[in-house]
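Support case: alpha-L-arabinofuranose complex. Customer-provided input:
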Amino acid sequence: MRMMFSAIALVLSSPALAQQAPPVDGAPATITVHGDKPAPKFDKRIFGQFAEHLGTGIYGGIWVGKGSRIPNINGYRTDVLDALKAIRTPVIRWPGGCFADEYHWREGIGAPAKREVKINTNWGGVTEDNAVGTHEFMNYSEMVGAEPYVSGNVGNGAPSEMAEWVEYMTSPTGSTLAKERASNGRKAPWKLPMFGIGNELWGCGGNMRPEYAADVTRRYSTFVKMPEGQRVMKIASGANADDYNWTDVMMRDAGAQFDGIGVHYYTIPYDWAKKGAATGFDEDQWARTLAKTVKMDDYITEHAKRMDKYDPGKRVALLVDEWGTWYDQEPGSHPGFLYQQNSLRDALVTSLNFDIFARHTDRLRGANIAQMVNVLQAMMLTDGNRMVRTPTYWVFDLYKDYQDGVVLPVDVQSRWYNKNQWTLKAVSASAVRGVDGAVHMGLTNVDPNQPATVSVKLDGVTGAGITGRILTASAIDAHNTFDAPDVVKPAAFNGATLANGTLTVTLPAKSVVMLDIR
Ligand code: AHR
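Agent response - structure generated as follows:
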């Protein structure tokens, strides 16, 4: 008994541990922003989108066709286009996903009426008429102002097919492929800054072992060639969640042949057989979803460690090129279409991930939420001529000034939020000095029942004025519908005061706040 007592006393008297002890219930969280120790920039590519030929992600979601009664510009629906521009969408990944590793680009060029009609074998067995192909996607990226991240077919395509696709997109006028592109309506080559060497080669992309995938990646990557003087970032197919061996082997055996490697991690409240509903859930499901979201931090840390072994100079980027929530599809919707509602919970999944991404910008230089419209954790949902922005969209809007800003590391001391066995820090945060010169600080209170008072020490940050916006709602599963599109929408936030270099903020329960310090 005496021995136990002295062991406890020793632990409590250790200065390091005493410092790390989280504030108890009711005590304010404390945050230090290290404006004096800037970290690598928050690459705008971390705000990337993902648009796969899946469900109504493309058809109905972005493309309605030129003759549609839905307002459109050259076949692209105007409402979605405008909404993507408003959040400064920097990257769109296309055409998949699993779809990419069975995609034959020649089937999607030329006169639309003559394009091949295929079965989408991955997603619902529906027909794919290839109305959206290379021209439609590349032109759309330009209209949005986004960089195209095109994923090649390693699964059942040949290296020559991949090489010719790249040449078709990028070759200056003169070659036969460039002339063919021109005859199909596009004389000038497109810019192709990012190219994926397959997708999920461990699964729908060919069920490969990492050793085999590494060899295949070396081979296919060799033939992805750009015109003289241009570079493309070649991105290798990355691991599933915590499959660190995949990253290790790919880096060891093929790392010299690519510039980036992906990792895919989906937040699934339960498991693949029964994932959980997008709305109508209880607090246990709220807590388990958010607790599973913050596993992303460990996954990135561990993958980055494997990369450090072979690439200590951090030449190769890590990209979380698929992330987001995956719930059971909405009742009555096609099971292969992955259509799900999106609630305040998804908003917090997004802000927690942005905070995590900010901690890893030394290695993490891209991410693509799955997916852009009507699929999984979407920015927007459409129904005929109606479109609604989701809570996730609004977090992308709140955080958009992080794009290419310098990350200011933050230390967060917060009490824990617990529900059943699910535990995570009640307060999460990140900060960036934006390209506009202002400091932008995102704060999240995951506790759905209690507000959180936060005291923020600003080291190396000066500012006289502070403005803020908040995203919250009365219910944990609050969401926007076509009939009530503004239930979850940012509002002005007045709960922050700045005095003598310290910010005091009161975060309402279940809220995301973005502060701008100028
Ligand atoms: O985003 C849906 C699917 O999830 C993608 O097609 C695939 O890459 C992943 O398994």
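The domain at 43-404 is CATH 3.20.20.80 (TIM Barrel).

Case will auto-close in a few days if no follow-up is received.
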